[in-house]
Every structure is written in structure tokens, then in C-alpha cells.
Amino acid sequence: MDMQIRRVATIIEDHFYEAGRRAERPLRKVATIMVLKNPYAGQYVEDLSALTEASIGLGKKMGAQAVAVLGGAPVEAYGKAGIVGLNGETEHANALLTTVFANPIRDAIGGGDAWISSVTKVAAPGTMIDVPMNSIDDVYIRSHYGTMSLVLPDAPLPDEVALIFCFATGGRLNARVGGITVEEVRKQRATAKA
Fold first, then answer.
1. Which among 15, 33, 43 is positioned nearest to 153, based on CA atoms?
2. SS3 assignment, position 58
3. pLDDT: is 190 or 151 the higher one?
4. Which pTM value belongs to this model?
5. Most buried one in 3, 4, 14, 158, CB count within 10 A?
6. Phi and psi dihedrals of 184, rounded to 5?
């Protein structure tokens, strides 16, 4: 299936202060966005596997887009989302956001063993979406639970889907609620491989 892409966009946020404290290392959040025509808008289709298959190429494009913007900065957290236009259904976004879509993105950023938090919804253009994020190493690393809030003023149109993948170069600024750390998880993995 050839997916017709209307536009791609990238949103970059750099965070330097939280609660009046300057970050030791600024936190960068990046959202890569792809708005595409929904071939199943306005109809019920039982088998959505063509969307899932087509998503592999979309994942490759979004991964390349993210790497170009991140400029070599390491990714420590990620999340994904889909907004379906009013003539579609959430299942259309879910079919596009499966593991086969995410694996090329993981490859592009150099890994990511953890499950990827996600959210989908049907909405009109300009609806806010909060994209949940978690550590790329382990979903239980509390310091990396976060979100990136986005508004796409002109998307999705009723016959479109907006795919969103978000990345962060670290956890929350001033994170201090305990739990396992990125360093501990990586050390455990290295020990297990040895």
C-alpha cells in the first residue's frame, strides 16, 4: 500500500530550568510528525494488515527524520501517538503504530529494549494530544516517565491520520522519586551478557 504523505514536521523543545533549578544537562524533546491520507476513512475494513505492512517504510522515514534533528544526541526516552481524523477510527492509528513500525525507529536511534508507551484518539484538527514517554531501556525507570504535549493546528483532516513519535535525551529535570536508574539497568544487562 502506498501511503500518501501530506506533510512532515519536527518540533524541538529544549528544557533548561525546572522549579528554579538549572539543569546539569539540558533536556531535549523532539517530536517527529507525519500526516498522511487514511485509505480507510469513511469505511469499515476487517483486515488492516496492509496498514501495518506500510508502516514499516513510515517508521524508516520517521527514524531518519529524528536522527537528523537529534544530531547525534543519545535518546533515553520515547513514546508514540496517533490522531485519526473524524472519518476514521482509532484502530487505523493502532494498525500503523505496531512493533514493525517502531523497530526501524529503534534501529535508527541505536536501540531501545523497552515497550513504547502510546496513545491514539479520533479528533478534529487542533486537538491537543499528550504523548506518553518512558525509558528506552526499561519501562520501570520512573525518572523517565513524561509527556510531550502537541497541537497540530491543521491536522488531521477528516480523511487523515497524524503519526507522532517523541524522543527525549534524558529523564525529567529534578527527578527524585526513586526507583531503578538507567545506569543500574544498563549495568545489569552488561553483567548478564558477560
1. 33
2. helix
3. 151
4. 0.94
5. 3
6. -65, -45
